[in-house]
Amino acid sequence: MGLVAVRRVLLAQFASFPVNGADLYDELKSTVAILSTGIPSLDQLLDSGLYTGELTELVGAPASGKTQVCLSIAAHTAHSLHHEVLYIDSTSGFTATRLLQLLQGWTEDEEEQAEALRRIHVVRVFDAYKMLDALAEFRSNVAHQIMSASRPAKVLLVDSISAVIYPLLGSQQPEGLALMMHLALELKMLAKDFGMAVVLTNHVTRDASNGLLKPALGRSWSFVPSTRVLLEVRKDPTGKPTTCRTASLMKSPRQPVGIRVELNLGDGEQDRGCRTTFQGGTMMEDAGGRC
């Protein structure tokens, strides 16, 4: 075989070829699904819900509602959408009792509740290496499910990603940044390869220069999630926390940054008693009560 022929073979195997926008759009329509979170105002904020193939990050201080939103998404996905869910818990925040309470808010049928609970698979990990092991095992299981024509999981919840990464960052752990980006790559590949919606939680830190709150894990991590939502507690006139939360869009490929809505995390009937307000006066919806 001549050098020209060898060159042609190598180009065919390894070179990148341009793809036009129309073909990419057709591929997007055939592979992307939008999954409701079960929280109407959050769906509005996310432009209809969670998009498969993408990472969505929930950012907030302790008690801001991150775990509660994850539990709500898990319950709704398992019960109403009939999809399998993998829930990776790194903070011991997952409680089956609270999950059952959410399901009871949607259905009184105990068999339906039990069936939904069986669709939610919980893994507890407390360091980045164990999380990588869990993701590798999950990838193997999903591939096996696809081969056997059974329904693989469509939603992966990680609560919280910062709990396993943050201890690795700093001068004492020089490999921490590399491990963080390895985790990011694994999560993105799972989302893309298996058409999953991945939801992560992250905590907040205070900016040393201006004192404002910002998402943890630094600038490198900020490029990982496609969508970022900040959750904050709403307080009543006396300063007491309520079940209402403010959700603000910090990053999105589809919606304007700065949109803000309110959601009620008190029970299975999400958003009851909270307003849904879109910043700038574009849209305002009152659910009949204020917190």
Automatic annotation (TrEMBL):
Gene3D superfamilies cross-referenced by the UniProt entry: P-loop containing nucleotide triphosphate hydrolases
UniProt KW Isomerase keyword: no
GO biological process: DNA strand invasion; double-strand break repair via homologous recombination; reciprocal meiotic recombination; telomere maintenance
Residues that span the membrane, as ranges: none
Coiled-coil ranges per UniProt: none
Subcellular location, record wording: Nucleus
One Pfam family linked to the record: Rad51
GO annotation, cellular component aspect: chromosome, telomeric region; microtubule organizing center; Rad51B-Rad51C-Rad51D-XRCC2 complex; replication fork
UniProt subunit comment: Part of the BCDX2 complex consisting of RAD51B, RAD51C, RAD51D and XRCC2; the complex has a ring-like structure arranged into a flat disc around a central channel. In the absence of DNA, the BCDX2 subcomplex XRCC2:RAD51D formed a multimeric ring structure; in the presence of single-stranded DNA it formed a filamentous structure with the ssDNA. Interacts with SWSAP1 and ZSWIM7; involved in homologous recombination repair. Interacts with BLM; required for stimulation of BLM activity by the BCDX2 subcomplex XRCC2:RAD51D.
Name of the protein in its database record: DNA repair protein RAD51 homolog 4
Classification of source organism: Eukaryota, Metazoa, Chordata, Craniata, Vertebrata
